[in-house]
Design goal:
Elements: H1 15-18, H2 24-43, H3 48-55, H4 59-66, H5 75-84
Helix pairs in contact: 2-5, 3-4
Length: about 100
């Protein structure tokens, strides 16, 4: 059986941009922050309820983050959650011309 081959296209490094989302950079940044929150929860073996007890942030918010439901979150809110979990966020900005 012969399969059809398609040309490969190199991604931009931002899947949201590749999918032409209007706020791709913000969505990518939120996804990175959410991944760091999940890493912190896993590193500390925290359930969403234990994370709530430690931080005062609603367990439902941690569930949303674990499920990548980030629409309700702003970048600064995700950064604040990371701070409450004991992590510090360092942001470096590099501006490039759009292609």
């Amino acid at each position: 059986m012969k399969t059809k081959s398609f040309p490969l296209t190199r991604g931009s490094g931002n899947v949201f941009r590749d999918l032409e989302h209007p706020n791709a950079d913000i969505e990518q940044f939120k996804a990175i922050l959410a991944a760091e929150i999940i890493k912190a929860l896993d590193r500390e073996h925290l359930t969403v309820r234990a994370a709530h007890d430690r931080t005062g942030i609603a367990a439902a918010d941690f569930s949303r983050i674990r499920n990548a439901n980030l629409a309700r979150f702003t970048v600064d809110r995700l950064m604040a959650i990371l701070n409450r979990l004991g992590s510090r966020v360092e942001v470096k900005v590099r501006v490039r011309r759009a292609a």
